[in-house]
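Model it.
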Amino acid sequence: MEQWKARFFTIWTGQQFSLFGSSVAQFALVWWLTQKTGSATVLATATLVAVLPQVILGPFAGAFIDRWSRRWVMVVADGVIALASAGLGILFFAGRIQVWHIFLVKVLRGLGGAFHWPAMTASTSLMVPERQLSRVAGLNQTMHGAMNIIAPPVGAILVSYLPMHGIMGLDVLTAALAVVPLLFIPIPQPVRPEAGERRPYLAELREGFRYVWGWKGLLIVLLGAALINFLVNPAFSLLPLLVVNHFGKGALELGWLESAFGIGMILGGLTLSVWGGFRRRIFTTLFGIVGMGIGVLAMGFVPPTGLYLALGALFLTGFMSPITNGPLQALGQTVVEPGMQGRVFSLLGSLSAGMMPLGLAVAGPVADLLGIQFWYIIGGVAMLTLGAVGFLLPPVRNLEDQRRPAPVHP
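Modeled.
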């Protein structure tokens, strides 16, 4: 095995265990809140407090990630999440748990995530050869799809056989599996100025925004990614209503549809990890957007008797999701200056996370007024348009020819 593979995949494997433990713990906490409160408001609030730290702090975290050791940023982020889960486990064991305790832990987990994901993504570009970035991104997408399928049933089984403090303990154990490799395996750092030459934090923060704002192609891609999150996330949040009100079906059929998307995502990620995508990564992403648009648009026209057509449409949407997202991440890791990647990826994460509550706020009234399928039609048409326009816009089409260094300051 090449040296980079041994180092990177040792860290990567630990991270996947941690993500799995976190997914199981999240499922268990949501189920506990559902049983204890039965309140939709409580569940919505739990989702909101988990997202807000990344939305609000994401752009500010990026400048710190570019200043600090990314390896230690990940160690501290994973450590904070593990300590929060350990504290929650102690409260469950002592029988003193309150709903606000879970809200607080979700905030801490969101805070850790706001630092961890950009740090890991920016570190990947320095550990993995450029030609392999799309394949690694495809593998990440495969694991994401697998987590979505495996973690909920595993969480349901564990909730039946383990007490809540046991599940929190499992989360702490898997977090430790992520931290230990980071303590021993060095991660390359981008070249940084000497301590006496470093600019103030706020200056570097502004520099990150100017870097994105002044690069037309990158700005269009970031805004397009945010718009897709705005359109697609609400569509899947409305899926249970579509199953009940349009198809006249129940939980079993909803599970089939969600599994079709998850299986498509796994196969799409595996395809990307083997294929690697087109030579120009942006073409692969735009092709994926068009494919997702076809799947989402098809959901808007499926008749009430066409459940199997819906299964095919969601499978296509899931398959094209890694084809869209994997090369986009690899593209950012390739064209963005390594010393700027923390700020750029944090900004992307913040925009994407912020689109979920905003999209739900808009999609709900639209679906109530014009029907649930109308939102799928809006989303599908918008994605087809974005994909087609992206091929026609030179700043987007030629993005990989426009690599920019960070601004040089005297």
